[in-house]
Each structure stands twice: as structure tokens, then as C-alpha cells.
Write a structure and sequence with these properties.
The protein is of the alpha+beta class. 33% of the residues lie in helices and 28% in strands. The chain contains 18 helices and 34 strands. It starts with a helix and ends in an 8-residue tail after the last strand.
Length: 707
């Protein structure tokens, strides 16, 4: 009976799709059993087949359109969600949040645009995030609260029984739950780290908050020890290219222990022969092993100022896989022939065995190239000096070729931290790259490019490193900024997609001007985020059609994954077999590795903020001169010469009435004075909070002493 009634209702509404009252529908269908009618109507409504409004008007439901997004901030009364496919963050009133929490993946509907920006309702929570977060305990005026580290913009009451023996200012981990019969959040402490004024303690919490594993399971450690104890056998060497007499060396930082790449370069009649020899990690990490599963889950090594959280156990990363000088090591070699202009003529990939002649160090090789090396250094590098000189020459050719293709050098400032014996940050300075670092980068890019070309030419399952075209909306914002800074955005205003060369034109205009660093940062923000994918869609930033990550399998899982696939391809040319074995694997490796990379970067940046703040707590009250690096409604960000960035509130300028122009400038309505991106500004350090990584400045007119 009910099914028949539901069918009649749907058929009528399909023929007459305009809305009709439920009473009118009863009359049209000549229904006598009204109770059954309303049961049928309610079932259709609950199933989403029809809509019934407050006035009891019925109409066929429109196909529900939802937007997938993630909750990125939570405040009292509202939240913001970031669409998965890009676009502006969406405002969600607390009444329309459906108890979604920070980090939850949600489906949004009722999406609306307004002058203040887009808004939406949460239709459903499709994937819940962890309800365990970290923060700082705050006691005062009878209150016991948690100040969350996540983007939760209010304090959460702490269950008092769980806070016994926890001191004010301690860094804590807590489970978040909703107070029964209310929408209020409460926290139950499950772990206490120590004082939140210590960046080291905060880094411990950041690791937990980002779900980064620090301990290897016993099964993984046992496998690693077994593998490390095995000597290289004749069977291992069978079929390998023997390069043990070749002038090969590694070049890394002085404190590096996981040496996964080595180089050899020689001049040829056509141009150059480049050898990039990579630790044969896939030989040791077998598919389906406990180590492989653990490495795939970790995805990448994570680097903090005071520690490295490796992807592989040290028995592998620092031991059997590390290309230590003077030892026979199993490698996977990319041998690339190039002409005198850096054009790739041919490439081949072979399993090999090497014996590195020198354990090179960047700073030492830089001295060789700068002609400042002493006799002892020259003696150390004598076995590979011809190869090094040829490598530098080739790298210069490759760099010139890259610039001609339109690639852009962006000023991506990295910070170098110095810690004392107690692990406290006592110095921060920009990290500079020398000639040898840039040389190795060019050679690795070439090997990565060749590996991607090989995979694409053979149409095998693969994990590419891709970098998509910038979002047009972001490009429009960049055009506005470039014009506001007095540069000419003409290269960005043309039909079709922008190119890397268009970005290079803007950077060339900015070079040597106060806007140089700001433009560089903005170009980076305009670009899409690089990621891993199984489709060879190219790399925008490098202006390359083919690219992957082949050269660091000790610290990146995508490299390990493609080593495994390429190794299998060397054994068989059966594409159907390769697809059967590796298609699903490549997809999983690309997806999981992209997520792991984002997780690691978020953790590393959060920890850096804490270490910067810890350093600046030692300089409260001191004055410096910096560059305005960002402008917001509330004030300006200032970057100091040591790479530390702090915030100056607009209302801290005495006697001024600053208003944001919506682009890059704060204008004083009283005097017309401006605060704009790229401008120098004298500041005084007034506060630094290690737990949040926040550093606060105020304007200062006293004599400045640069860091």
C-alpha cells in the first residue's frame, strides 16, 4: 500500500514539478487513507526524494550538490572550512556545523556567496579527525583550561580530575569530548610533556599532534638488523654494472649520515656523461615486508632542529644503504649522456655496485670551487677532482639551459637553528646554499627527469612528481599585487595558461628592488603545491614535461616505490605483468606519500615557529630593522635579517589611524603615511610565545642594531 502511494506521488510530481500543498496532493491523487498518505510522504522526504517545507508544500527534491571540504578553524559561534578542490575558505555558523570538529572532512551544502565571502552548512561529516589534540594548560581565577595548539580559537575547559599535578603552562595532550546535552567542548588530559616555554617540549607535542611515528615496531627493527648483517654476495653482484674503479663521490652536509646519492661526471666528444648512483634501497626492502609497510606509512623522514625522525631504521639509513666512502655498496645508477648545451641525448638505468672514493662535504667542495681550499683539502679530493670540475661545468650548462627555458629562481628563505647543550635555540640565521649545493641540485634534477622519461616512454605504472598550473584566481591576485608594487604585470595578462617564463619575467623585474623577497614569496604562494601522481602531467615550477623523485630512496617513499617498479621493468618487458603488479601500488604510493609530505611539512614549520619564538624570548626589548613581509587588516608582518618574522598591530602606531587598502598597504588616515610590503620598518621585540610560535613587535624609533 505504502509503496503504491509513494509511486503515485512521485509520478504526479514528475508530470507537475511545481510545488503543491500536501492537502492539494491528496485531492489530486484522490487518496482516502490520509494516514497512509502521510506515512508515504514522510518516507519519501526522509529518503530525500521530495522536499516538504514549513507550509506543507511538496516538490521533487533537486539533486543535492555538495562541496567536499576540511574544517580548518574553529571559533566560538562559527568555523571555516577549506574546499578540497581549492577556492576560498567558507564560513559556517555554529548552528550549521553539525558538531564537526577541527580537521574533519565534511560535505557542505547551502553554499552562498556574499560580499564578505562564501558561507555554507555542513551536510554531513564524511571523515572524522582525531579528537585528541595538544595544547597548553592555563590556570587562573579558579579556571582550568586548555589553550589548543590547533586552529581552535578559544580555550577549552579541562576536566579537573585529569589535571591533578599538572602545572600552569605545561604542554599537554587531551581528549576532546562534548559535555552531555550541550554543544560545549571539554578536555580530558591524557599526557603531560613538560613546560611549554621549551621549544624542544613543544616539538614533542607537535610530533604527536601530527601523528608522526617516532618508534619502529619490534618486527621492523628485527628485519632491519637481519638485513644489515648480511654481507654483499656474488649472487648480489650478478648482472650489476661494476663501477668500483670509477671516480665516484658523495657530497652532503657535514653532519649527514644517510648518504643515498653519489655522482660521477666526465667530458665526452658530444658533451658530458653523467652518472647518478643511488642507494639500491629496493634491493633490501622487499615488497610485503614489515619494513616496507612501515616505510610506506611514514612516507618521508622528518627534520627538526634537534632531531631527525627517519623513514627507515638507522641500520639501513645510516648503515647498509648509506654510500659510505671506501665500502662496496649496491646502487641503482642513472647514466645520462648530454650534449654541450645540456640537452639529454640518451639515458640508461642499471643496477650497479660502487665504491665511493671520497665522502664529500658541501662546505669543503665550495672551498675547492672558490679556490680557497688548503693543501689538505686538495689532497682529500684529488681522486675525484676531475669529475668534480666536470660536474660543476655541466651544472652551469644545465642552469643556463634552465633559465633560458624560463625557470625562475625564487628566494625561498630557510632558517638554520643553533641549539645549546640543553637543546635551547641560541641563534637563528638564513640558510645559504653554495656552489656545490646548487650543482648537486642540477644533477639530481637531470636524473629525476631521465627516470620520468623512461617510465613515460614505456607506459608503465609510476609515481611522478607533478606541479600543476596555478589557479587563475591566484594569478589575478598576483597581478594586483605586482601592479601595486609598481612593477609591470603584462607578462601575466595574456590568453591561455601562464608559464614559468611569465613568472620569471616578474621576478627579473623585482630583483634588486625592495620588493624582491615579497614577490618571490608571492610567486611561491601563487603556485600550486607539488604532489605525487600516477599521471605524467608535468612540473610547472621546473618547466619540465617529465619529472619524478628517484634520487632519495632512504628518506622518501616515492623514490623507493619507483626503484621497485624500474627494477621490475629491467627484469621483464611484459607491460601487462607490470600493470598487474604495480598499478594499484603506484596509486597508493602517490596518494599516501603526498599526504605524508604535507603532514611532515606542517610539523616542521610548526616546530620552526617554536624555535624562533624561543630564540626571541632572549631578545625581548631589543630593537631591529626589518622588512614588511605581509599586510593584513589588523597590522603588518615584519621579517628580520635573521629570517625571524613577527607581527606589528596597526593600533600600536601611536597617534596613527591606519586602514588596510585590501591589497598590500596600510594607510594612515591622519597623515597619509603608508605601511606597505617591501618597506623597511624599525621594530622592538615585545613578546614571544614559544607554545604558539607567535612573536610580537611594536614600532620603534630608537637606534636599531641589526641581528
Amino acid at each position: 500500500m505504502l509503496e503504491e502511494l509513494k509511486s503515485k506521488i512521485i509520478k504526479y510530481m514528475q508530470h507537475y514539478p511545481q510545488s503543491i500543498t500536501s492537502r492539494g496532493l491528496i485531492k489530486k491523487l484522490k487518496v482516502k487513507d490520509t494516514k497512509s498518505f502521510y506515512q508515504a510522504l514522510n518516507q519519501l522526504r526522509d529518503a530525500g526524494a521530495v522536499d516538504v517545507n514549513k507550509k506543507h508544500r511538496v516538490r521533487l527534491s533537486e539533486e543535492k550538490k555538495t562541496v567536499k571540504a576540511k574544517i580548518v578553524s574553529l571559533s566560538k559561534g562559527f568555523a571555516f572550512a577549506r574546499p578540497s578542490d581549492g577556492g576560498e575558505d567558507m564560513f559556517i555558523h555554529a548552528d550549521n556545523l553539525k558538531k564537526a570538529f577541527i580537521g574533519d572532512t565534511v560535505l557542505l551544502d547551502h553554499v552562498k556567496q556574499s560580499p564578505k565571502g562564501p558561507s555554507a552548512y555542513v551536510d554531513e561529516i564524511s571523515e572524522k579527525s582525531s579528537r585528541t589534540i595538544t595544547g597548553t594548560l592555563s590556570r587562573g581565577r579558579g579556571l582550568c583550561e586548555m589553550i589548543p595548539d590547533d586552529a581552535i580559537r578559544y580555550h577549552i575547559p579541562v576536566e579537573k580530575d585529569s589535571a591533578k599535578n599538572v602545572r600552569d603552562g605545561d604542554k599537554i595532550q587531551a581528549e576532546i569530548f562534548r559535555t552531555p546535552r550541550t554543544s560545549m567542548l571539554s578536555a580530558r588530559i591524557v599526557k603531560v610533556y613538560g613546560k611549554s616555554s621549551s621549544a624542544k617540549i613543544c616539538a614533542d607535542a607537535i610530533i604527536d599532534q601530527n601523528g608522526i611515528k617516532t618508534r619502529f615496531p619490534d618486527e621492523v627493527l628485527a628485519e632491519a638488523k637481519t638485513i644489515a648483517s648480511r654481507p654483499i654476495t656474488e649472487q648480489d653482484l650478478k648482472g650489476r654494472l661494476d663501477l668500483r674503479e670509477t671516480s665516484i663521490c658523495t657530497i652532503d652536509g657535514a653532519d649527514a649520515k644517510d648518504l643515498d646519492d653519489a655522482i660521477s661526471v666526465s667530458r665526452t666528444k658530444a658533451g658530458y656523461k653523467l652518472g647518478v648512483h643511488i642507494a639500491d634501497v629496493s634491493h633490501y626492502i622487499r615488497e610485503g615486508s614489515a619494513i616496507d609497510a612501515e616505510a610506506m606509512e611514514r612516507g618521508t623522514s622528518v627534520y627538526f632542529a634537534d632531531r631527525v625522525i627517519p623513514m627507515l631504521p638507522k641500520e639501513l639509513s645510516n648503515g647498509v644503504c648509506s654510500l659510505n666512502a671506501g665500502e662496496d655498496k649496491l646502487t641503482f645508477s642513472a647514466v645520462v649522456e648530454l650534449d654541450k648545451h645540456g640537452e639529454i641525448l640518451s639515458y640508461q638505468f642499471k643496477k650497479s655496485v660502487i665504491r665511493s672514493k671520497v665522502r664529500g662535504v658541501y662546505s669543503e667542495v665550495n672551498q675547492l670551487f672558490e679556490k680557497t681550499a688548503d693543501a689538505e683539502l686538495k689532497k682529500k679530493y684529488a681522486p675525484v677532482i676531475r669529475s668534480l670540475n666536470a660536474a660543476k661545468e655541466l651544472a652551469d650548462v644545465l642552469k643556463t639551459r634552465s633559465v633560458q627555458k624560463g625557470t625562475v629562481d625564487l628566494d625561498s628563505t630557510e632558517s638554520k637553528f643553533t641549539l645549546n647543550e640543553e637543546g635551547v635555540c641560541i641563534n637563528v640565521e638564513p640558510r645559504h646554499t653554495g656552489i656545490s649545493e646548487q650543482m648537486i641540485e642540477q644533477l639530481m634534477i637531470t636524473a629525476n627527469q631521465a627516470a620520468a622519461k623512461l617510465a613515460k616512454a614505456n607506459a608503465i605504472p609510476f609515481v611522478y612528481r607533478v606541479h600543476e598550473q596555478p589557479n587563475p584566481e591566484r594569478v589575478n591576485n598576483l597581478i594586483q599585487l605586482v601592479g601595486a608594487l609598481g612593477l609591470n604585470p603584462r607578462s601575466l595578462k595574456h590568453e591561455g595558461d601562464v608559464t614559468t617564463a611569465d613568472f620569471a619575467d616578474i621576478m627579473n623585474q623585482a630583483n634588486g628592488t625592495p620588493a624582491q623577497k615579497v614577490i618571490s614569496h608571492q610567486l611561491l604562494r601563487t603556485m600550486a603545491k607539488a604532489r605525487y601522481d600516477t599521471s605524467p602531467i608535468g612540473h610547472f615550477g621546473l618547466a619540465l614535461a617529465d619529472y619524478c623523485h628517484f634520487t632519495s630512496p632512504i628518506r622518501r617513499y616515492p623514490d623507493t616505490a619507483i626503484h621497485r617498479i624500474l627494477s621490475a621493468m629491467l627484469e621483464t618487458k611484459d607491460k601487462e605483468e607490470l600493470n598487474r603488479r604495480y598499478l594499484a601500488f603506484a596509486n597508493a604510493a602517490a596518494s599516501d606519500s603526498s599526504a605524508a609530505e604535507i603532514r611532515a611539512m606542517q610539523a616542521e614549520r610548526s616546530a620552526e615557529d617554536c624555535y624562533m619564538a624561543e630564540y626571541m624570548t632572549q631578545h625581548i626589548g631589543e630593537s631591529y630593522t626589518g622588512i614588511i613581509s605581509g599586510v593584513t587588516q589588523r597590522g603588518v608582518f615584519v621579517e628580520l635579517p635573521n629570517s625571524v618574522e613577527g607581527f606589528v598591530p596597526a593600533d600600536s602606531f601611536e597617534g596613527a589611524k591606519y586602514r588596510f587598502d585590501g591589497v598590500i598597504t596600510q594607510v594612515d588616515e591622519n597623515t597619509g603615511d603608508k605601511l606597505t610590503i617591501g618597506q623597511t620598518l624599525a621594530i622592538q621585540v615585545v613578546a614571544a610565545d614559544v607554545a604558539s610560535g607567535r612573536i610580537d613587535f611594536i614600532p620603534d624609533t630608537s637606534v636599531n642594531t641589526e641581528l
